[in-house]
Structures are given as structure tokens and as C-alpha cells.
Design brief:
Elements lengths: L18 H9 L4 H27 L19 H12 L7 H19 L6 H21 L15 H27 L4 H15 L3 H10 L13 H26 L3 H9 L4 H16 L1 H14 L11 H8 L9 H30 L7
């Protein structure tokens, strides 16, 4: 009679190999050298964070509007509350702020809809936003239609201007970068050389020079009587500059696609454009999501350079208010607020890109 073997239940791991204590021993104190380095790092962090916490939180001032309340040496966060309107809207007229709010709330609604799984009609949200957001921004912020008074672009400033320049740059640079990447890989010599020259020229000059050229030289090439505002000139320079970097990111993704993909598409009778649109480009863009988002983050931070051509982004508005004699010695609070604003937006883009990578399964894991 055959003997039956009953497997024994799995034993729990040893108590010393799990938990916080085990993690500390294996990660931070697993040897004399690592233990010393851990203690030194903890001392350095404590020597910085403890005084910062004492200055910014314990002795900080959060409520009120009197600058005299900040004379004891603590952080004067009252300054941020008193100037928050200027930091966000800049010189935009008070009676028309609702128009900026409509644009900002619409952008937030689009982002939330894209971030929530299962949103109905999500595949139409992205193309709708790409086409509709620029139109909505121009109609509401500039005005001149539906009874809304015209607000000159010279009055666009603060965080609003930073977001407008960033969104326009992101929306326009990606399709231009895709076209340039395809052109650089084209078999037609003229197109390949033109795209290569465009990419290398724009990548070879700093953004500061591009903004200067867009502000000073671009009007010289326009027909007589045609005038572009500083904001529009800055947009053109930023889009052309960032599209060259985006082209190289996309080209890296195209080179990662095996030749067999295009050969299989050709065997099915697909032409060049249908092959690129339906087979190659979706795979290439999935592979380079980190590079695309990294370019977007760099673009968002580079918008601060528009100060050199006389535009007031969020950092410029903070820099302009820290010299107010009514609020002395508040430069640290202002720049910390600017750093927090940029960190929130950049971290948000980074987290969304990671979620998108997980959803699209772009990590090629080995079994």
C-alpha cells in the first residue's frame, strides 16, 4: 500500500530577520563602516533639520498681517499670506481674476480626470485638452470676446504666467519633437539634414540666448505692422528650444524598437505613416516616458529665465516683493515658498509618470 506524504506547514521566519530591528541591522548597521556612516549622516541631518524646524515651525508666525509680529527672529509666514494674491496672479486686474480661475480650475479638472482610473471617455480627454486648453486660455485670459475686456499679455505674471508658458511649451514641444525625430531618421537626405541641423543648433545654445533672440531679433523678421507681445515671443522661443530636446528623447525610443516591428507592419500592408502611428510610435513613447517627463520638468523650471526679458513669473514676483521695506529680512521665506511651489508641481509630474509607467507595463521584467 502506497504511503501518503502530507507536506508540513511553512514555518514563520525567525523573529530576528523581520521587523524594524532587522531592517536597521541589514540596511544601516551591518558593519563598522556602515554604522559610522549612518551615525554621521544622522548627526548632519539633525544639525540641519532641528534648527530649521525651530525657526520655521516653533518660532514661526502663521496668523496675522502685522509685519511687527515677526521681529523675534522666527519665520515670517505672514508675508506669504499677505502677498499670495500677487504671487499667483501678478498684475492681472482684480475684477477679472475669475477668468484666470476658470482656466486654472479647468486644467486641474483635466489632470484629476486623467489621474482617476475608470474615468469615462478618458481617451478623448487628452486630445481635447491639447486642442481646447490653448483656445480656452487665450479666450479667457486675453479677452476681447463675449463682453470680456482685453487684458494685455504684459499683465500676465506670477504663477499664472509660469503655468501658461509651461503648458504651452509641453503641449507644442511634444508633437514638434516627434516630427523632428521622424525627420532625423528619414531616408530622404534633405529632410534628414534639415532636421539634424535644427536639432543640433537649438541644442547647442543656452535658453537665455534663445529668449534674448526671441525678444529682440524676432520682431525684425516680422512683416511691417505685425507685432508679437513679449509673452508670445517667449512662448515661441521656449517651444523651439524644447522641441529639439524632445526630438532626441523620442529618437531614443524609436531606436529601441526592433526592426521586426516595421517588417511585420509592412507584411500586413501598412504604409509608412500608418506603421509609425499604429505600431512604432506607441511603443516608442511608452519606452521613453521617463525621458519625456524629465524634459517637461526641466521646461517647467526653465520658465524662470523669462525674467531676463522683462516677464514676471512666480519667482520674479517673489524677488520683487522681498525688497519691500515693510517686510524686512523675509528673503528666506519667499524663496522657500518658491521652492515648495516648484517641488509640488515637479513631484506631481514625476509621480504621475510613474503611475503611467506601471499602468502601461513599460518595465520589461524577466521571469
Amino acid at each position: 500500500m502506497a504511503e501518503t506524504f502530507v507536506p508540513l506547514p511553512s514555518l514563520p521566519p525567525p523573529s530576528g530577520s523581520v521587523g524594524v530591528g532587522a531592517w536597521l541591522r541589514t540596511r544601516l548597521f551591518n558593519g563598522p563602516v556602515n554604522s559610522i556612516l549612518t551615525l554621521v549622516c544622522l548627526w548632519l541631518v539633525a544639525s540641519v533639520l532641528i534648527p530649521l524646524f525651530d525657526w520655521g515651525v516653533i518660532r514661526g508666525h502663521f496668523v496675522g498681517s502685522d509685519p511687527q509680529a515677526c521681529r523675534d527672529g522666527g519665520a515670517c509666514w505672514l508675508f506669504i499670506g499677505a502677498r499670495l494674491r500677487f504671487f499667483i496672479y501678478g498684475f492681472y486686474p482684480d475684477g477679472e481674476l475669475w477668468r484666470v480661475n476658470v482656466v486654472l480650475f479647468t486644467a486641474v479638472a483635466v489632470i484629476v480626470a486623467l489621474a482617476i482610473p475608470g474615468t469615462p471617455g478618458k481617451r478623448w480627454i487628452v486630445p481635447g485638452a491639447i486642442v481646447g486648453m490653448p483656445i480656452l486660455t487665450i479666450v479667457f485670459m486675453h479677452g476681447g470676446v463675449f463682453g470680456m475686456p482685453v487684458v494685455a499679455t504684459d499683465q500676465w505674471s506670477g504663477l499664472t504666467l509660469t503655468l501658461v508658458l509651461s503648458i504651452v511649451g509641453i503641449v507644442a514641444a511634444l508633437p514638434m519633437g516627434i516630427v523632428l525625430a521622424l525627420g532625423r531618421r528619414s531616408k530622404m537626405t534633405v529632410i534628414r539634414l534639415l532636421c539634424t541641423m535644427f536639432i543640433e543648433v537649438w541644442r547647442g545654445v543656452p535658453l537665455i540666448s534663445v529668449l534674448f533672440m526671441a525678444s529682440v531679433m524676432l520682431p525684425l523678421f516680422l512683416p511691417e505692422g505685425l507685432q508679437f507681445s513679449k509673452v508670445l515671443r517667449a512662448m515661441i522661443g521656449i517651444v523651439l528650444f524644447e522641441s529639439a530636446y524632445m526630438a532626441e528623447v523620442v529618437r531614443g525610443g524609436l531606436q529601441a524598437i526592433p526592426r521586426g516591428q516595421t517588417e511585420a507592419a509592412a507584411a500586413l500592408g501598412l504604409g509608412y505613416w500608418r506603421t509609425m502611428a499604429l505600431v512604432v510610435m506607441p511603443q516608442a513613447l511608452k519606452l521613453v516616458i521617463p525621458g519625456i517627463v524629465n524634459t517637461f520638468i526641466a521646461l517647467f523650471k526653465d520658465t524662470t529665465l523669462v525674467l531676463i526679458i522683462g516677464l514676471f513669473d512666480v519667482l520674479a514676483t517673489i524677488h520683487a516683493t522681498i525688497v519691500d521695506p515693510d517686510w524686512p529680512n523675509i528673503a528666506t521665506e519667499g524663496y522657500l515658498f518658491a521652492a515648495a511651489v516648484f517641488w509640488v508641481f515637479c513631484f506631481g509630474m514625476s509621480r504621475y509618470s510613474q503611475a503611467l509607467e506601471r499602468k502601461l507595463h513599460t518595465g520589461h521584467k524577466r521571469n
